[in-house]
Amino acid sequence: MLSETKFTITDLRHVSALELTNICNGLYSRIDENLSELKPYSLTVESQTIYRGAIDAFKESIPQPRSSQLKSKENTRKEGDAFATADEAIAEIDALVEIVKLSEPDFYTGYRNARKIVEQGTGSLQVKGTVSEAATDKAIPGAVLTFRPEGQTETVIQKETAAKGGFNIKSLAEGVYEVSVSKVGFKTRTVTATVRWDELCNIDVVLEKATPMMK
User: Fold this and answer.
1) Is 181 exposed, middle or buried (0-12, 13-18, 19+ CB in 10 A)?
2) What average pLDDT values come out for the chain (215 residues) when binned by 10 residues?
3) Contact (Cβ atoms closer than 8 angstroms) between residue 204 and residue 117
4) How far is residue 207's CA from residue 183's CA, in Å, rounded to a whole number?
5) CB 196 within 8 Å of CB 155
6) CA–CA distance, 55 with 131 (Å, rounded to integer)
7) Taking the CB of residue 143, how many other CB atoms lie within 10 A of it?
8) Angle at 65 between CA 59 and CA 70, to 5 degrees
């Protein structure tokens, strides 16, 4: 215990007021845990009461901005813990959603698009995405994406996926679009995309094979 709580005057001169408060609180707790064994050193319930009062008085004397820094660090730590917990929960949800990939393709596509991490737009690139086959996850080259403003029939732009199933659109006005995705041999899908000037819009679509026509 002595080795844990030994601080020189030089040590204490180089710690902040808030760090000193934490050191004192830690020492108080260690004394409390071993109080019966520390009586020969004149450490008693009464001395602890006095020590506690001194710590509290010192803490109250710390300027508010420094106290705010301590709270900010604690909030940052709690925020990090919360994000870690949320990431674990989302990973479990992702695994469950994969189960309905074939049975509920519309829900699956909407979920995957909503799960995309927002990337800040760079340069003039406004929209990017991929088109793949639902059953195999293989890229679908040559799929045609037709963008129309929501609720309208006028085509604003058409884009075809490249060899690896991806596509990029460098310039597209802000707004909500209905995006029709078609490819011979596959069922046509329509998804909704929101385009903003300050964000890169990601659109990932999975297509199901079309049912062969009976002769």
Assistant:
1) buried
2) 63 68 80 82 84 82 54 62 73 77 78 58 72 93 94 91 93 89 94 86 92 65
3) no
4) 9
5) no
6) 63
7) 25
8) 60
pLDDT of residue 119: 45
pLDDT of residue 32: 83
> Treating both helix axes as pointing N-terminal to C-terminal, what angle do 64-99 and 105-114 enclose, rounded to 10 degrees?
160
pLDDT of amino acid 11: 64
Q: State which H helix or E strand residue 22 sits in.
A: helix 17-33
At a CB cut-off of 8 Å and minimum separation 6, what does 59 contact?
A: 21, 67
| Cα-based distances in Å from 209 to 133, 158, 165, 212 | 8, 22, 16, 9
What pLDDT shows up at residue 168? Answer: 93
Sequence letter at residue 200: L
Alpha-carbon separation of residue 48 from 42, 97, 109, 134, 154 (angstroms): 10, 56, 62, 68, 79
DSSP-assigned letter for residue 94:
H
Q: Which residue has the tokens 């001169």?
A: 13
DSSP-assigned letter for residue 123: T
